[in-house]
Amino acid sequence: MDLQEFKIKVLPARQKLYRLAVLLLHDKEEAEDVLQDVFLKLWTQKDKLQAYNSIEAFAMSIAKNLCLDKLKSRKRKQMVDVAGMDLRSGDATPYQYSEQTDSMRNVQRLVETLPEQQKLVLHLRDVEGYTFEEIEQITSLTVNNLRVILSRARKSVRDGFLKLENYEVG
To answer: How far is CA 169 from CA 154, 161, 163, 166, in A?
Structure first.
């Protein structure tokens, strides 16, 4: 694989890799460092990349592992950053904007409380839009396990949100 082919096949995944790293590390500078490490590893293995069905899934797997290694080394609790999310639209009133912002913060707090595995699978499926087969390559979990983990994560967030918003009776 030459430089041009590498740019075409690998670099388009940059934003997804970065979002995953920020999700896991909650530090933009460390996420950028991980991104550089991922591209360096991929470049050093450029001749072996043809063996993978999805280079993007392989890159996500490398990014996930590098992030988990960083987290283990610093042993700190993770937090989700909602500062970069923009909920504004031209049609929303200030009241609606405030409601949306509060709801988004509540959902983010609920996602923070999920176990790491559920948080990762939820992010890869619902935010990044990966298929179960791609997530299977990234996480080394079976598709059936992924479906169960995703279902539990969504149910946990939904139930917690309903309780917070007083929509649930009892």
So the answer is: 20, 13, 8, 7
Burial class from Cβ neighbours inside 10 Å (0-12, 13-18, 19+) for residue 75 reads exposed
Question: Is the entire prediction scored with pTM above 0.70?
Answer: no
* Residue-wise pLDDT tens digits, 59-68: 999 999 998 8
Question: Residue 18 corresponds to which tokens in the numbers above?
Answer: 């970065």
Residue 1 pLDDT class (50, 70, 90 cuts): confident
User: Which two structure tokens, joined as six digits, stand for 11?
Assistant: 């670099």
The one-letter code for the residue type at 40 is: L
Judge contact between 17 and 67, C-beta under 8 A.
no
Residue 120 and residue 139 in contact, taking contact as beta carbons nearer than 8 Å: yes
Q: If phi over 0 gives left and psi between -120 and 50 gives alpha, with beta otherwise, what is residue 129?
A: left
